[in-house]
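Memo to structure team: turn this sequence into structure tokens by end of day. - J.P.
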Amino acid sequence: MEYQSEPYRIFCTDDAGTCVAEITFPETQAGVCCIDHTFVDDSLRGMGIAGELVSRAVQQIQANGKQVTATCSYAAHWLEKQKGSGKNV
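Reply from structure team:
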């Protein structure tokens, strides 16, 4: 799967150009990006793609020197799980 990045979005498309996986993380206040949407097509569920999207988003946000928050329930749970494991998120 080939991930494509934009300033506040990471996504994948199928051969027809249809978006099959996506995460968005707009800057909601100065220096803070909020992961507000994660989508994975039903045909790709169970393959770890949602977790990969969140991981890539966090890396991109932090690489830009910004903090991460989440209103998306999946991303919020993923972030809490990472903090619980002692990882710096």
